[in-house]
Amino acid sequence: MAVVETERHGQVLVVRMNRPERLNALNGEMRNRLAEIWTEFRHDNGLEVAIFTGTGRGFCAGEDMKESLQDGAPGGRRPKMEDPFMSGALEKPVIAAINGFAMGGGFMLVERTDLRVAVRGTVFEVSEAKRWLLGGYNHGHIANLPFPLAMEMALGFRFTSERFYEIGFVNRLVEPDQLMPTALSMAEHLLTLPPASRVNTVHMMRQMRPAPGADLQKLADALHEHGALSDRMESRAAFAEKRAPKYKGWDDPQDRYRLPTLDSVKSR
Question: Are 159 and 246 found together in one domain?
Answer without folding.
Answer: no
